[in-house]
Amino acid sequence: MQFEYRPLSYWIAELPRLEKVPGGLFDSFPRATRLFKLGLRHPAACVRLETLVFLQKFDDGFGLRTVNKRNERGFPCEWSIDEREYPAFAAAVGELVPDILSLLVNSESLRDVLPPEVLSSVEDDLVQIPTVAAAVLQRFGEAAAPAVPTLISWLGEAGRHELASYVLRSIGEKAAAAAPRLMELIEDPSFSLHARMDAVELLGRVKTDERRAVDLLVRLLKTGDPGLRSTAAEALWYLNSRAASAATALTSATRDTDACVRARAIEALARVNPRGDVALPVVAAALEDSVQEVRQSAMIALLDLRQCAIEVIPIFRRVFRSRDDDLRRQALRGMACAAADCQHNELRAELAKEFRAVLRGGYPELRETALTGLANLRCDQNECVKLFQAAATNGPADERSKALIGLANSGSTDPETLEAYKLACSAPDANVREGAVYGLGAFVEDRSARELLHRALSDTESRIRFHAAETLLKGESHCPNEPEVLQAAESVLRAFAAGTECNWRALAAGFLLAMEPSSTEYRGVLLEELNGPSTRRGAIHGFRRAGILDSGIEAALERILPDKDDGFDAAMALTELGSRSEACVPILGAGLDMSHTRLRRMACRHLAYLGSLARPVLGRLEKCLTDSDSETRLWAAVAIAGVGGDGLHLQSILLSGLATGDSMTRACILGALACRPPAGDDALAALVEATNDGNEHCRGMAVVALSGMCGHAETIRPIIEATQKDSSEVVRQLGAQALERFARDR
C-alpha cells in the first residue's frame, strides 16, 4: 500500500481498518508495536520522525499507566511504568529496537521534507532523526537493553560515541557489559579529556562489579586534572558499596585542593562506607570547610549516614545551631529521619525538645519537618500531644497530615484527639483524610468514629478505603449490632483482592485469608502475586498478614530466598510464620552486615526465632553485641542464647531489655534466659517480677527460667507454688513441672 503523509493520529485511527480487526489500537502491545513498526519503516522521513516523537510519549503511545517513583538521589522521577505492565512493554520495545537503531545513524535532515505546520510544532533539537531516535531509546531506559551490544560497538567511534553514551546512561545496570570497553577508552591517551570524563561517569552508572573498575577509578582520584578527579569520585558514588575498597582513597580526596573534588569525594565516601566507621569523622570535619558547596555536600553525606543515629544526631544538632539557613533545614530533616531509628532514651528526649522548640518558635518553614520528627519518635508526652492536636486542626495540609500521624503514633485517646480526627475526615486533601482514618483505629469502640470509617469506605482514594475497611474488621467486636458496616468493609477488601491494584490486592487477600484460612481463592491470589517480580513484596506481606504457613506456602516463599530484592523479606516472613528452614540463615546473616540499623535489628530478631539453627552466623551475632543500637544488641543476645551462648555479659543485656520491650520481646528474652540457668540476685529479682507480667507467655517463660536457678530453691518455691492459682493453664502446667523438678533435686 502506498502511504501519503498524514499525522500519526490518522494512522492510529486507520490501524484497525488496515489490519481488518475490530477494536481500538491500545488494547494490546502487539497491535501498538505493529503500528510503530509501520511508522519507523515508512519511506517518508516526516512519518518516521512523527513516529519517533510519538514514541517519546510512550506512556500515551502504548496506553500505559504510570506511577511516581524517586531516582537514586531521592528526587521525584517524571514517570515510571506500572511494573505490572513492564514485561509486556519490554518485549514490545525489544521488537522496535533494531528499527530505532537503524534510524539512530540516519543523518537525513528533515527541514526540507517536513510540512510547515509540522515543522513549526517541533522544536529545533528534535528535527534530526538520530537525535530523536536516541531520545526515544533513552526514554525506554533499561527496556532498551537489547541495544547494548550495538551501542558498545559505537563507543569511541566518531559521530556515534555521544549518542551511544547518552543511551547507555539510561539503561544503567543492564549495560554493565560496556565496562571493559569504557575502561579501554578511559586509559587511551588519544581520547579527549572531555570524552574520558564522560566515559568515567558512564562507568559508574552501569554499576559494574569488576574490581578492575574500582582500581581504575581510585587511580584517577590522583590524576592531575581536577575535572577527571571529581568525575572519578562521582562514579564511585554510583558504585556505592561495590566500591568499599575505595574508602581510603576517597578519604584522601576529601583533602584535595579543588573544592569540587572535595565535595564529590565526601558524598561518595558516605555511599561506599554506609556503616560510617571511616566516613563519619571525615564528613563531620567537612561541615567546617570554607567553601559552601563542600559544606552542602557534607550535609548530604551526613543524611546518607543517618542510620548511625547515636553518632549522627549530635552532629545534626550542632549544625542546626549554625547561621546557614540551608544547612539548618537539612540538619532538622536529618534529625527527623534519624529519630525513627533512635533507641537511646537521652537522645530521644533531646530530639523531642528540639522539635518542640521549632513548633513553638517562629519557624513556619520548618514546622512540617519538626512534626515528622516528633511523629517518628512516637512521642506520647502530653506537651507533644497538644502540639499535634493544634497542628492537626489548623495550618497547611502537609503539616496537618504529619500531625495526624504523630497523634496516631502517640496512642492518644483524648476527646480532643478524636475531634481532630473527625475534622480531618472531611478535609479536601487525601493525605489529611488518610491520617485521620489511620488514627481512628484507636477509637473504633466509639460509634461516631465507626460512622466516619464507614463513610471512608466510599472515598475516592484506594489507600483510604483499604485502611478504613481493615480498621473496621479489626474492631469487629465493637460492631456486633452493625452487620451492614462489617459487610461493607468486607466487600471493599474483596473488591481489592479481585482487582488489579497490585499492592492492595495482595494485602487484602492476606487479610481475608486470615479471616477464612481454608479459602483457596485468596491463597491462590497470594501465590499468583508471589510469582510476579513487581507484586512479590506485597504477596510476602500478605502471607505475613494471613499468619498461615503450610508446606505449599513454605516452599513458595523458599523459592524467593535467592532473590536479591525480596529474599530478606521472604526470610523474615518464613521465620515469623514459624518455619524452621535452614535456608533462611544465610539470608538473615547477610542482614547483620547491612548499614541500616533497622535491617540489622530485624535480622537479629528473626535469627533469634530460629534458635539453634542460627549457629552458622554465631560469630556475626557476637559482633552485634557491641552495636550502637540497643535493640539490636538485645536481639543479638537473645539469638546467641538460643544458639547456646553463655556469659554474664549476655545475661545483663537480656535483663536490660525486660523493662522496655513489648510482650513478644519480653517473652523471647525470658525464653533466652531459660536456655541457660540465670545467675545472680539481679536475675532473680527480674524473673520474680516477670511472674506477674500481664502476658501469659511471659509468665510461663519466667517460671521456666526460675526453675533453673536451683541455688535459690527456698526463695523460688513459694513463688512458683503461687502460679498454681494462675488464670492460664499453660502457666499452671509449667509451674507444676518446675515444682516436680525441685522435688527431684531435693
Low-pLDDT sequence parts: 1-8, 15-27, 59-80, 107-114, 122-127
Q: Report the helical percentage.
A: 55-70%
Report the structural category.
mainly alpha
Q: Shape from CA axes?
A: globular
Instruction: Please report the total strand number as a whole number.
Output: 0
The N- and C-terminal alpha carbons lie at a distance of 103 Å
Mean pLDDT score: 80
The CATH class name of one domain reads: Mainly Alpha
If classified by CATH, what would the architecture of one domain be?
Alpha Horseshoe
Tell me what portion of residues adopts beta-strand conformation: under 5%
Number of helical stretches of at least 4 residues = 43
The CATH superfamily of one domain is Leucine-rich Repeat Variant
How would you characterize this protein structure?
The protein is mostly helical. Among the domains are: 582-645, Leucine-rich Repeat Variant (Alpha Horseshoe); 649-746, Leucine-rich Repeat Variant. It has 43 helices and no strands. Helix 5 (86-104) packs antiparallel against helix 7, helix 12 packs antiparallel against helix 13 (226-239) and helix 41 runs parallel beside helix 43 (729-745). The longest helix is centred in the first third of the chain and has 19 residues, at 86-104. It is globular, with a radius of gyration of 31 Å. The termini are far apart. The relative contact order is 0.03.
Give descriptors for this structure.
65% helix, disordered N terminus, Leucine-rich Repeat Variant, 746 residues, mainly alpha
Q: Would you summarize the structure shown here?
A:
By secondary structure, the chain is mainly α. The protein has 43 helices and no strands.
